[in-house]
Amino acid sequence: MTHSRIEADTTPLTRRGAPRPPEPVEPKRRRPGGKLAGVLLLLVAAPVVVLSALRGVGFDQQKHAAAAIALTPYALPAAAVLAVLALLLKRWLLAIVLVLCTVLLGMIVLPRAFVKARPIAVGTQVRVLSVNLFFGRADAATVVKLARGAKADVLSLQELTPEAVAALDAAGLGQELPFRVFEPGAGATGTGIAARHPLTRIALGRTPAPGAYAQPAALVNLPGPRGLEVMAVHPRDPVGPKGAESWLLDLGALPEPRTEGPARVLAGDFNATLDHSPLRRLLGQGYQDAADQAGAGLTSTWPARGAFPPPVTLDHVLVDKRCPVDRFDVFDVAGSAHRSVLATFTVPGSGP
């Protein structure tokens, strides 16, 4: 009796129907390029994302951050290319981040390549030339020839040494630009202003910090009812021995633009690009960058030769918004690591 029940319970499975075949297992879809490509893409994209974030929040109070932010224009094409690669490799989250970086950087950088609308103004056209003499080693004859050919009304000289003053005089600077306010010094500390029209030394800005380079200022007595206040600018660089502290102090001591009276111009080697917050603060106060106004805001000025470090724009002419910019030019100077900059603008003859 028990045996027959066991036989009934152990009837072959085929009498009750065939077993279901196992479900097919789909192979995992591999992302294009595999894990290695993803890791490499992430490693390359990380610096671009970090730089974009630093620029976005304006953090340049540390020397390495300040040096990185100077490379912002290079981050734009890098972010765009990496965003395309991330899309092709189907790294969706990274692609979204890189697209956002590209949009942010594009809004910041691209307008510098376009000429801004120029208001109509009647007045005196002025040409301001700025030359970094590179510890006084720049060829004096080239500087004088450049000033003569450009018909410069004002010449801002940085890193003006006593030896450079003698060389410039021997090359004929006094005959071309006879008026001057010079503060020569050793190495990079000296600065000066030479002009075609009479100069009156004035004090502009806050008291310089200890150890700051000379940054003289003068009133240029232009023909007509208006004068022009000019300051030769040369703050210490942000990657020097004291880091960004001295750089921030020097740039923070520069004068604000005027809203009435003589127009004010800052010309020189700012050791800062349009992406650095101290320079953007000056622009926000009412200055305008002559290169940016002329659509030449991406033209590099240092180093004058070579691809490393990557060339950036450190030399500027800032004019107040009452002075429409007519043009902006950049020239090589033999013996200098900087390219010289020439801004041509109009100082209104009337109005506030």
Task: Pick out the low-confidence regions.
Answer: none
Order of helices and strands: HHHHHEHEHHEEEEEHEHEHEEE
Count of separate DSSP helical elements: 11
The portion of residues assigned to helices is 25-40%
User: What's the main sheet like?
Assistant: 6 strands, mixed
Rg from Cα? 31 Å
Fraction in beta strands: 15-25%
Q: What strand order characterises the main sheet?
A: 3-4-2-1-12-11
Name the structural class: alpha+beta
Number of strands: 12
Structure description:
This protein is an alpha+beta fold. The protein is 34% helix and 20% strand. It is built from eleven helices and twelve strands. It has a six-stranded mixed beta sheet with strand order 3-4-2-1-12-11. It has a six-stranded mixed beta sheet with strand order 5-6-7-8-10-9. β6 and β7 form a beta hairpin. The model has no long low-confidence stretch (mean pLDDT 91).
List the helices and strands and how they pair.
Layout: H1 2-9, H2 34-57, H3 63-69, H4 72-88, H5 92-109, E1 123-132, H6 140-150, E2 154-158, H7 162-170, H8 173-176, E3 179-183, E4 191-195, E5 199-202, E6 217-220, E7 228-233, H9 244-252, E8 263-269, H10 277-285, E9 287-289, H11 290-293, E10 315-320, E11 325-331, E12 340-348
Parallel strand pairs: 1-2, 7-8
Antiparallel strand pairs: 1-12, 2-4, 3-4, 5-6, 6-7, 8-10, 9-10, 11-12
Helix pairs in contact: 2-4, 2-5, 4-5, 6-7
